[in-house]
Design brief:
With about 400 residues, the chain is of the alpha+beta class. It has 14 helices and five strands. The chain has helices at about 1-15, 15-40, 45-55, 65-80, 90-105, 110-125, 135-140, 145-205, 210-235, 245, 255-265, 280-300, 340-350, 380-385; strands at about 270-275, 310-315, 320-325, 355-360, 365-370. A five-stranded mixed beta sheet has the order 1-2-3-5-4, covered by helices on one side. A hairpin with a 3-residue loop joins β2 (about 310-315) and β3. α2 runs antiparallel to α3 (about 45-55) and α12 runs antiparallel to α13.
Length: about 400
Amino acid sequence: MRFQAVRRMWRAFRRPPVSDIALVVALELFAAAMAVVAAAASAPEMLPLILVFMIASVPLLVRRKRPIAVAAITVGLELCAAFIEPPTGVGLPQLIALYSVGRHASGVWVGVTAGAAAVGYGALAAFAAGPGPSIGPAVALPLIPVVVGELFRQRYELRERRMAERAERAVRAERQRIARELHDVVAHHITVINVLVGAARTTMTDDPGRAQEVLVTAERTAREAMTEMRQLLHVLRAEEAEASENHAEVGTANLPGLVEQASRSGVPARLEVTGTAVPLPTAVDHAIYRIVQEALTNTRKHAPGARASIRLSYLGDAVEVEVLDDGSANPVDDGVPGYGLGGMAERVALCGGELQTGRRPEGGFRVYARIPVEPVAPERPREAADSI
């Protein structure tokens, strides 16, 4: 129990807003401690520089969203502070801000910012009257954190691209499987229907009763073919679940059981249903269940211990489903390819809906789907339907 609490605290700390606040607080406490030391050592000339350090640390709160602006402010403050006391190098807030430029920005502005910082520190080293770094190290030092941040950004983007490629390959493989099954279904049933219709044609004149029986069989075969083709078109296979899940019924009516099963497997989840529940087309009903199942599976695999919430909304002309989790901003990648988000997108597209997925700014992941629906009439008794 204590270990779970520690993991929950660590996940909360790793969220970008929380970690940035903790970073700024740590820098401010460090500056305050340095101010106390300077006062005790009777070095009041250090207090203005410490004040600049504290002011330059505050913009780091938004270093992920505005890395260029944060770097310009922090570096500018340190260069202006050189008129008070020549610096002995690049300050810690400036190093973090320059790293954020390489990590969270892209394009020509990364090079412009790094070059401007290098020129600024190089000029300061060239014209500084007091002790300070030589021109070479002064120019190179601000470039190092930018390069390191750029390497980390490229590594992250490469990982994201590989995950997207795995998902795309999985979708293509699923489409090929469906195409093969469609070919088998159509070829088999059309062949049977062709034979039956031919037999009915040849016996229609001599034995009308026998011909009618053959046509009824052909009709039943055609109905079976249509049912199987609908299943193949509207229900794409999700990642293989546990054996007990494979036999579970699919549909919105079974979402409470799916949520309870996810909670037992380590993903505390809750379900909220809004609006008036109405019968949904089979394809939409299955798609919603599979989307929720896939989202909870991803949470269990990539954000162990995270909590999830599911919202199902009936809007009359559409139905919405949203799955949120509070997992870490850096999900676990187990390297196992799956159908994942690509399979979700295929399901929703086949139903004529839209899908939105992505990481949440406050941490965790969001899956949202909106699918248009038309009213479904109550199912007629089979005898009455067959007589029409």
